Input
Amino acid sequence: MERRIFGIETEFGIRYIPKGLGPLAPEEAARKLFKPVVDTWRSSNVFLPNGGRLYLDVGSHPEYATAETASVRDALIQDKAGEYLLNDLVNQAEDSLETEGYQGQIFLFKNNVDSAGNSFGSHENYMLERKVEFSRLVRSLIPFLITRQIVVGAGKVHPAGPPQWGGRPLGAEGQPSFSFSQRADYIWEGSSTATTRARPIINTRDEPHADASLYRRMHVINGDSNMSQATTLLKLGATDLVLRMLEDYYPLENFEIKDTATALRVISHDLTGTATFPLADGRREANALTLQRHYHSAACRYVEEKGAHHKDVPYILDLWGRVLDAVESGDTSRIDTEIDWAIKKKLLDTYIARGASGYDDPKIQQLDLAYHDIDPTRGVFGLLTRKGLVKNLVSHDEIAHATVHPPATRAALRGRFISAARKAGEPFTVDWVHLKLNNQPHLTVMCKDPFATESTAMDDLLATLNLGPGDTWSPPFI
Output
């Protein structure tokens, strides 16, 4: 497939820390956070002028779904734009609370686990051609996704204590530890239609948000939320390369894994990448490092034969290889400004070397969480960025632009329609495919082509609003 659509859906953890009046429950904090959205849009579930979607998910988790993009770099930019938009809401909510006598702070965390052991997700979306044999592709992709965590995991501290549902490492015997992944302990199946109680690696609900005769959507839900731009780019880019190899029937060895849940946990809690797990053939065992080496080597050969399909492919292949070298050697010095788990582990180990008692130390646990605070002036990742200790691939201006402007896909139609309808003061309804002026429902436009950036039908619809040329864009809602 020459072209692909990408998207990321991120659920954020929310917490209010009081400095005077009593605490706010997450539900109340979320309500305060979304007040500007509700005041403007009369809803807490909205599509924005940049083509993305912002809403409150189950459990009072703010969630941002990027606009559909046609490149991994654009997906990265749109993902970061979501952080900017939500952090602006945080600032507004704190100002509003201050006028009510609350002196506390609202925190939004781009992570995957809360203190009670509940998990929330970061979902990736990849558009596939309908002609691809989906069951074969899923079966072949799952071993890559199970082992991918040693490359693009966000890292997590596990304090000592009795085993808990979903959140304790296998074989850790109650000792404090550090794992590659936050999400691995909460995934139970390879693929299914579930998303919550029995979480799979791949959700198989057939919701392409496009022409179902041509496309389907690969919905991956076992990945970690990433703070590092380089890690996000590698996560999407490496997965895209493996998908391309599978779509082209490029030779890859069969590594189907016998027990998905056990393999995920064994891999996550073994920082050497060499812990073994049985394969489905009943004859062999494998480890994460061996599997990832196989996928990486195959991807390098594939690109050498087919050519790089976008400018970031050489960097993705180089970083992928450097991460595997770091896992094998135990020396993360060549990746500890780019890969989340390595950045975080270096930070925590530095504090331990300076006197913290270990991964059980409350300060270490606090740093583990604060790494994911999206506030660039308060969060640990923001501090590391200002000190030049993490690598940025896209600029502040590119991200700020993406908070208002959509990428060059169908999202551009959606964004233009939303801005025009707002400018005209016309009530409207949109989703990923449909554009409707509520007062003229018979003129509803359906756009099933996610690559489309022009639509005569939409132009005709906007013409009914009597807006002048260039008079369609409006300021962001926050």
About this structure: Confidence is low (pLDDT under 50) at residues 162-172. The chain has 15 helices and 17 strands.
